[in-house]
Amino acid sequence: MGIEEAVGVSYEALIVIIKITFPTLLITTALGMLLTLFQSVTQINESTLQQDLKIFVTLAILFVTGPAIYLSLHDYTHLIFERIDSIHGMEIRLPR
């Protein structure tokens, strides 16, 4: 494996990580900004309100996007094992 292949694998791993985390980060960031604006306007200074709601929304998002996360990681893992197999010429059988 050369430098170019290692950089390519690292790039693909970063893309998979971004695809997995982007929906959760985007929604919780937007929710945090809306809650901060709401608390500023109403002068409610309750920090647990924001934390509890963000935790609940994050868990709900992960529950909804869980199958997509699984498929993305599953496909990437198979790709990595196929590359390892092609490098070493070994026979690795993965269940499909």
Describe the structure.
This protein is mainly α and 96 residues long. The chain has one domain (3-88). Helices cover 85% and strands 0% of the residues. It has 2 helices and no strands. The chain has helices at residues 3-42, 47-88.
Secondary-structure element string: HH
Residue-averaged pLDDT: 86
**Poorly predicted tracts of residues:** none
Strand content: under 5%
Number of helices: 2
Whole-number radius of gyration?
A: 20 Å
Q: Please, how many domains?
A: 1
| Helix content estimate | over 70%
* Tertiary shape: elongated
Largest sheet: none
Extended strand count: 0
Structural class: mainly alpha
Instruction: State the distance separating the first and last CA atoms.
Output: 26 Å
Record the SSE blueprint:
Elements: H1 3-42, H2 47-88
Helix pairs in contact: 1-2
Summarize the structure.
This protein is mostly helical. The chain has helices spanning 3-42, 47-88.
